[in-house]
């Protein structure tokens, strides 16, 4: 894929390095001369420009990108970049960094955002995941808030131990996508059995999150 990243600070450069190593074409757009360092990610294309200016994005070739990541440290900039990418250049997938959790409600389809990534929320979720048994932990919001990736950890005495995945009576708008067990990542099949301590990852709507919890006996 061709990916444009607005913001070449520590976050933007780290994302670029990961994507480049996976074989993607990456363009880093940075306005601040202090952060403009092509030697830090040599395989990426570097553009010194204001990512909030439509003409700059046109000149950079934003219209050729499959994905745009708004990764600056300024939420206002990330919103503007997301909106321009979606409305002016019809970019298929727009991912935006949320710096201030109080601004998270703005990062929706209305601003062109497909996926909003809030570092404070993710860190809080990781803490909750490590200490919470039987509660729904929301890890990520997907599709402009239409769906969430959530996790529930089964306690060691769960009555579902030894029972097949097919025996779970889940709500209509929920899908079990992964079971984490020790160091294993299991893509669940109907005949796979559950064990105490399993971490179950679901893609679901917010409306039925508590229904999943009840389906697991919590």
From TrEMBL:
Keywords carried by this UniProt record: Ion transport, NAD, Potassium, Potassium transport, Transport
Domain of life: Bacteria
RCK N-terminal domain span: 1-117
Residue stretches making up the RCK C-terminal domain: 137-218
Cellular-component GO terms for this entry: plasma membrane
InterPro entries with a match to the protein in the record: K_uptake_TrkA, NAD(P)-bd_dom_sf, RCK_C, RCK_C_sf, RCK_N, Trk_Ktr_HKT_K-transport
Molecular function in Gene Ontology: potassium ion transmembrane transporter activity
A Pfam family reported for this protein in Swiss-Prot or TrEMBL: TrkA_N
PANTHER family the record matches: POTASSIUM CHANNEL PROTEIN 2-RELATED-RELATED (PTHR43833), TRK SYSTEM POTASSIUM UPTAKE PROTEIN TRKA (PTHR43833:SF5)
Protein name: Trk system potassium uptake protein TrkA
């Amino acid at each position: 894929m061709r990916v444009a990243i607005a913001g070449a600070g520590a976050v933007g450069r780290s994302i670029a390095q990961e994507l480049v190593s996976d074989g993607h074409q990456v363009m880093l757009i940075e306005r601040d001369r202090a952060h403009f360092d092509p030697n830090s990610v040599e395989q990426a294309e570097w553009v010194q420009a204001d990512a909030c200016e439509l003409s700059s994005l046109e000149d950079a070739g934003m219209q050729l990108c499959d994905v745009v990541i708004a990764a600056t440290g300024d939420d206002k900039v990330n919103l503007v970049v997301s909106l321009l990418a979606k409305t002016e250049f019809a970019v298929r997938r727009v991912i935006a960094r949320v710096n201030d959790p109080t601004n998270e409600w703005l990062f929706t389809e209305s601003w062109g955002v497909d996926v909003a990534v809030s570092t404070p929320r993710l860190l809080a979720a990781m803490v909750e995941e490590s200490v919470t048994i039987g509660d729904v932990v929301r890890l990520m919001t997907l599709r402009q808030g239409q769906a969430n990736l959530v996790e529930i950890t089964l306690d060691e005495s769960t009555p579902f131990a030894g029972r097949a995945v097919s025996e779970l009576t889940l709500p209509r708008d929920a899908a079990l996508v992964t079971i984490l067990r020790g160091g294993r990542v299991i893509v669940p099949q109907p005949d796979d059995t559950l064990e105490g301590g399993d971490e179950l990852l679901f893609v679901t709507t917010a409306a039925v999150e508590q229904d999943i919890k009840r389906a697991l006996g919590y």
